[in-house]
Amino acid sequence: MTRLSATFADLAHRPALVTFITAGDPTVGHTVASMHAMVEGGADILELGIPFSDPEAEGPTIQASSERALNNGVTLLRVLEMVSEFRQRDKVTPVVLMGYLNSVLAMHDFAVRAGRAGADGLIMVNLPPEEAHDIKRELAAQKIDLIFLLAPTTTLARANLILNQASGFAYYVSVKGITGADHLKVNEVADRVAELKAISGIPICVGFGIKDAQTARLVGAHADGVVVGSALVNTMAQHPDDVVACCNALRMLVLELRSGLDGI
To answer: Left if phi > 0, otherwise alpha if psi is -120 to 50, otherwise beta: which for 143?
Structure first.
C-alpha cells in the first residue's frame, strides 16, 4: 500500500484536502516551512509544483510562481531535496510532484531519486496514457503512484482507459480552461464525477476553480478530494520577504478550507 492509498483509506467518508504550491516560490526558503504549515492547517496531501518555463495548463498566478522559482535557480534536483528535507519531520503526509514531462525525462534515474527523497505521486500534465507504460513501471518499483488528469471534454471511453492506468487518485480538471479559472459549475462537476466513479473505484479529486471554503465544500460533497492551488500561491506571493508571516497566512487559509470540507 502506498502513502496515498493509505491516506484515502484513513479518510473514510470525508474528502481529502489537497494543496498545491510551486517549489521555490517566492523563495527557496519558503517551501519546506510552507509545506509543514499547510499540514498543520489540515492539508491531507501536498502537491509540489516542479517549476517549468512553459506551463501550458497554468493560469497567470501559477505561471508567475514558476517564473519566480526558475529565477531562484530551482531545478528538479532541488525540488527533490526539498521533499527529502520535508520528510525529516513528516513521514506520513503524501507528497505529489506535479509538472511537465520535459523535466522528468532530463533526469534518467528520476524514479529512483524521487523514491529516495520520499515522493509519493507524480502528475505529468502532458503525459498521455499511451506513452506512460515505462515511467509507470519505474515509479511503481519505488511505490510512487502515477496520477492522470481527466477533463470535461474527456469521453467516457477514454476516461475508462485513463482510470484503468491511474493509481493513487485521478485528477479531474473541473473547468475548460487554466488554473485559477473563475467559472466553476458545481452541478456539472457533480454529474461528471458521478460518471467517473461509476466506472472506477479509484478516488477522484477535483481541481481548478476551487479557491475558498465555500467552493471546497460544494465540490467536496461530490468528490473524494479537492485541490486548491492558485489561492495558496497568491497568499504566498503576498509575503515574499517573511517566511513566518507566509506560513501563518497559509495555515489560516488551509484551516478555512478544511472547515469548509468538514462542514459537509
So the answer is: left
